Input
Amino acid sequence: MKYAVAILSAALSVSTAGVQAKTFKWTSASDIPTWDIHSQNNALSNGVHASVYESLVYYNSRTFKAEPVLATAWKQVSPTQLRLTLRTGVKFHDGSTFSADDAVFSIERAMTKTSNFAVYTAGIDRVVKVDANTIDIFTKDPNPVLLNQLTELRMMNKAWAEKNNSTAPKDIKTQDENFAHRNAMGTGPFMLKEWQPDQKLVLSRNPAWWGKAEGNVTEVIYTPVKNVSTRMAALLSGEVDFVLDPSPQDLGRVRSSPDLKVVDGIENRTIFFGMDQFRNELPGSDIKGKNPLKDQRVRKALYQAIDINTIARVTLRGLGQPTGALVAPQVNGWNEAVHKRFAFDVAAAQKLLADAGYPNGFEVDFACPNNRYINDEAICQAVTAMWARIGVKAKLRTLPLVTYFPMIQRYEASIYMLGWGVPTFDAMYSLQSLVRTVGAQGDGNYNVGRYSNPQMDGLIERAKKETDLKLRTELLNKALMLQNQDVAHIPLHNQVIPWAMKKNIDVVHRADNRLDWRLIKVN
Output
């Protein structure tokens, strides 16, 4: 352990120029997979990217209302035309001026084939430059959550991308790299100074930033550390200021320390299992010629065999709120009926398996990340044991975030764990990504079990076009209920996110589990 902390200490040592300079040192389990802002829709990277690349609008960390950033005003010219006035005088990190050309280019880049951000451009028909400081976004139909979607579409310099052969996003499914994968050039409060993947990331304050920060941090040093004991040891010894994902068992010790504190809250992220409902035969299974996961009774059996309350109490130590819904309570479309789980019932699960023709169970591939969610690997180990009680022999394999997500997006897992946050705070974001039949414009972009139901598709398409907000919410609710009845996925819990830090650190906790770089203070 001392050796591991010494390595971490060496990775974090850096000289800070100037007496007023404040360095913020933090850690979590995994590294960001890329610096290409439209390549991989990953919550950790999206939060880090927001320090360097800004969006037109962004959520206020205290109210979670969309507020002006690179756009200063917007107006609904017609139900399908949104006009945005861009901020003038904004410079990219190389000194070039941000303009409508960059905004149009960035949104169109997010709409391209290799982008993983089509879910945020859903419904957009085209983007038009009106003049140097104005753009129009035309949508196919009225879109009541377009502003929320824009919070995750960060702006890239068009000339920089063209010069460096990065006009198209890096394809997450391949090993190919573009210049934007390892380099960054935005308008944000921080600039990328150094990135050694899986080792260290250093950001430095942008002295020419257009905005005014409440915080006083001039340098950010991030060190990914997979081992949670090592992360906590680094905090306890003072090597780091902040741990994004502390170990549940150490929280009591942190809370009682005079030098440390914990800030926590419910995240808008639901953890669930997805299942391959597409292949006619599952790779590696002992059932030949058919796919047990296509049968709703089998999926429900797997669901009812999971003792989620024990997992929440023992494995998560209270850092999970058991749920039957695919979205968290803060999300539009959620209600108590959707939240209600099927009962934990081993006998009922065994009967369902027998009725489906699998009285002795079956073997199945089971994939989980081991450094993305709170105790993700431990949860999957516990569930493997629970499924064994009904005869389902899950062959568990765990992978780090960087290789796990490309793997499941290549449809290479039979059962997989996924955690889905909702940046738009609207269930359409989850429904379109997770249960809409795989297609274009972001449809099913994370439906990696390839679930497909025409009734579900119809509800989602109706909700996309519905302008009556009450009726639209009812459609979202019906779709969430249908997901539950079909057991398209097996919901587990909403994460409760604790942040552990030194007493002299001031941060604002966000439901999307990301830091607001403009607000961090080191006292």
Observations:
- The chain is about 30% helix and 25% strand.
- The chain has two domains: 2-241+504-522, 268-496.
